[in-house]
Amino acid sequence: MRLRLIRNAALVLDYGGTRFLIDPDLAPRHSRESFTGRSPNPMVELPVAAADVGADVDVIVVSHLHEDHFDRTEPLDHRLPVLCQPGDDETIRAAGFTNVSVVAEATSVGDVAIRRTGGRHGLGEVGEWMGAVSGFVLTADREPTLYWAGDTVLCDEVRNVLEHERPDVVVTHSCGARWPDSNDEPVLIVMDAMQTIECCSLTGGVVVATHMEALDHATVSRAELRQAAASAGVPDDRLRIPLDGELLEFT
């Protein structure tokens, strides 16, 4: 398995003989509005040209339709197969993609089995506003089991996968992004440092922390997560925190 972080949640994943592009957001730096008034989004440029991100991709996976997970897809081949959660297919087709399949529960691509998992993009009313989100568990012969948790806090759905399936590699979104509720109180909508570290304790595998330092509603940097992990006694080989453009390989 080879996993390359592009930026934020976008990954290129080589797994079981298939190249997946997960949650493509290829927008230029500062091309979208700020969430908090701190900076326009995305805050950083792509580490490679947008046109090169989709090179040799076989399948696109879209976890949900927030713009930092599905935006500015013009450089991609719109004939590529796209996998998505129920309810998102019409919007993806409207964006010009012609081969869109809904993953209600599970599917397969070549030799790769894919199962959709649930999550909570925040709790209470903020979670309701954020809408449905998905993660995915991938398995294939001679590959480590991969759990890509998606845009979620550490909740029962995530704990169930970690504790009962014991994936070898877990990809988390760990920037501690927050969104205000109706009382203007900030509510956590993806994992923060504490929840990411707890994920490390719930699985015997490696946690790969992504979705960091790209959006202005984030509250945790890579350095802060590394420092928190070191203070908690989590070794570097149990928590990987890749830079944009970095390639990780797992056997």
- Strands of the biggest beta sheet: in what spatial order? 6-5-4-3-2-1-16
CATH class: Alpha Beta
Determine Rg (CA atoms, Å).
17 Å
Number of helices: 6
Keywords:
6 helices; globular; 251 residues; single chain
Describe what this molecule looks like in 3D.
It is a single chain. With 251 residues, the chain is of the alpha/beta class. It has a single domain (2-242), classed as 4-Layer Sandwich (Metallo-beta-lactamase, Chain A). The protein is built from six helices and 16 strands. β1 (2-7) and β2 (10-15) form a beta hairpin. The protein is globular, with a radius of gyration of 17 Å.
Tell me the layout of helices and strands.
Elements: E1 2-7, E2 10-15, E3 18-22, H1 50-53, E4 59-62, E5 81-84, H2 89-94, E6 99-102, E7 106-109, E8 112-117, H3 124-130, E9 135-139, E10 146-150, H4 156-165, E11 169-173, E12 178-180, E13 186-188, H5 193-202, E14 206-210, H6 222-231, E15 239-240, E16 247-249
Parallel strand pairs: 3-4, 4-5, 5-6, 10-11, 11-14, 14-15
Antiparallel strand pairs: 1-2, 1-16, 2-3, 7-8, 8-9, 9-10, 12-13
Helix pairs in contact: 5-6
In short:
This protein is of the alpha/beta class and 251 residues long.
